[in-house]
Amino acid sequence: MKFKIHRGTQEIGGSCVELWTDTTKIVVDIGMPLIASDGEEFNFKQYENLTTLDLVQKGVLPDINGLYENSTSKVDGILISHYHQDHHGFLSFADNSIPIFTGEATQSILQFSEIFFNRKKSDKQFHNFTKDSSFSIGDFKIKPYWMDHSAFDAYAFLVEANGKQLFYTGDFRGHGRKDKVFKWFLRNTPQNVDYLLMEGTTIGRGKQTFPSEKDLEEDFIEVFKSKQEINFITTSAQNIDLLVTIYRACKRSNKLLVVDVYAAAIMKEMAKYATIPYPSISFPEIKVMYPYFLSKMIADKIGKEFLYQFKSFKITKEEISKKRKEIVFLIRPSMKMDIDHIDNMENGNFIYSMWSGYLEQPKTKAFVDYLKSKGFSFHQIHTSGHANVETLKEIVHAIQPKNLVLIHTFDGDHYKEIFKDVKVTQLRDKEEIKIQ
Ligand SMILES: [Zn+2]
Ligand SMILES: [Zn+2]
């Protein structure tokens, strides 16, 4: 078995690993970069008009023979570990005939985002795996392991071929809502792993530990109590762990949770796979708000039925204004105009629940400044979606790989000092490795 890490040995983002034998080739993740080669934030809009070939030649898309249209021999399968952009963002470029292997909820979020953001559905061939049951693609035998991560339905993969084993962790943590899943994994890690490709997002943060979702729940309650005015929260609607945390904090504080129609739809979709609260008769304390531009887009491009599915749980601008002291409202910078049209939206709490790096984005910065100018108190309540260094050590200790390779990190140089009892192999992007 041979493999090549196309991107990720020196950066977070654009995860992509190619593995092959004499007769079979698979690709694990095909993510979009977060950082461009000049160190600035990666913006795909700059490349939108280029052909696939141009994008490969410019080094934007990974140079993998058989991955794109018009190639003679095709890649035999693509595995997607979870639904974060940095792991699947370039999937649309892959040839439609290549089977894609994902968890069921991941597939559903991917297709959902396609409809919402690209307004069309692609003709990709999806195959769903379930946790802990192996499947084969040609020479490769693959076993997915369910992991605790800020993306719901995230997996690691054990890949075996020619008597050799490679373990790809994907993104994971041990302090989320699925901490029990992580503990189970620690007791049941694969053995005899030749190469462990482990994510090291937080490796530069030393001994720092991260709050659990239960800690965050208490923090939210504390902030809700601090003022008798509206509470705004900005977070990702796809961070299901956090939505559950916010819902629980609302319930314990007797607050109504107001979400927009997009977040409502995601929650309803994910409720098919786990006990997730969503606007319905079972969860009367969740209400749905219809932002102007988003609702217009949905009505035009997706259809009015999509909007109507939540009409029994709708909350109007007037009701939001009237009940503002009892409301926790999930908002995004794109909803500024809607907020402007609601009376008395001032002097409340604004809780930012995403990675602090995004606060540098001009759109977000302007939004924070706007709310501060309206008298809102600014709070940050967030935890990392990634394992801390101690958790990474536990994984390495449990697996005892013959070689440890760092990926999904900006701080690869630190690995050797941290993992002293295993062989740390520092690779470069695009370096071809034969597992002997
Ligand atoms: Zn992730
Ligand atoms: Zn990632």
Ligand species: zinc ion
The CATH class of the largest domain is Alpha Beta
- Spatial extent as radius of gyration: 22 Å
Q: What is the typical, i.e. mean, pLDDT?
A: 94
> What percentage of residues falls in helices of 4 or more residues?
25-40%
Apparent shape: globular
Q: Give the count of structural domains.
A: 2
Query: How widely separated are the two ends?
Result: 8 Å
Relative strand content: 15-25%
- Unreliable sequence segments: none
CATH superfamily of the largest domain: Ribonuclease Z/Hydroxyacylglutathione hydrolase-like
Largest sheet: 7 strands, mixed
> Could you name the CATH topology of the largest domain?
Metallo-beta-lactamase, Chain A
Instruction: Using the 3D structure, state the CATH architecture of the largest domain.
Output: 4-Layer Sandwich
What class, by secondary structure content? alpha/beta
Strands ordered across the widest β-sheet: 6-5-4-3-2-1-19
Total beta strand runs: 19
Total of DSSP H or I helical runs spanning 4+ residues: 14
